[in-house]
Amino acid sequence: QVRLEESGGGLVQAGGSLRLSCVTSNSRLSFDTMAWYRQAPERPRELVASITNGHGTYYTDPVKGRFTISRPGARNTVYLQMNNLKPDDTAVYYCNGKGMWGPNQYEHWGQGTQVTVSS
Q1: Which helix (DSSP H) or strand (DSSP E) does residue 30 occupy?
Q2: What is the pLDDT along the chain (119 residues), one digit of tens a residue?
Q3: Which of 42, 71, 98, 114 has the fewest C-beta atoms under 10 angstroms from its C-beta?
Q4: Distance from C-alpha of 72 to C-alpha of 75, rounded to nearest angstrom
Q5: Are strands 33-39 and 10-13 parallel, antiparallel or unpaired?
Q6: How far apart are CA 91 and CA 46, in angstroms?
Q7: Which residues are 67's β-sheet partners?
Q8: Residues 54-81, buried b or exposed e (16+ Cβ, 10 A)?
Q9: 95-100-104-109 Cα dihedral, nearest 10 degrees
Q10: What backbone torsions phi and psi does residue 28 show, to the nearest 5 degrees?
């Protein structure tokens, strides 16, 4: 069984920072793409940021310049540095990893970590 485990969420005031971490239960597993999604109350899941195994990145417009996704060192670990947080960033943040094993694609999700930004 493979499970992604997020940590680093919490309560922070607007303008503050948090660093989210995502690790896999199996260090041998590698993902072609890892990403952070979030789901705010009464809103659908949203892609926040993604990073490929070549370290190409994508960010949704509202977080550009504030969030940084990274995969330093181990390929089964991904971080999301969130600076200058805003109340609209409040959501449950989920880690996602996608890869290929032969002709088959595999995808795994973490359980989520709550980020709450107060005014």
Answers
A1: none
A2: 678 999 999 999 999 999 999 998 876 778 899 999 999 989 999 999 999 988 899 999 999 999 999 988 766 789 999 999 999 999 999 999 999 888 999 999 999 999 999 99
A3: 42
A4: 7
A5: unpaired
A6: 10
A7: 82
A8: eeeeebeeebeeebbbbbeeebbbbbbe
A9: -10
A10: -75, -20
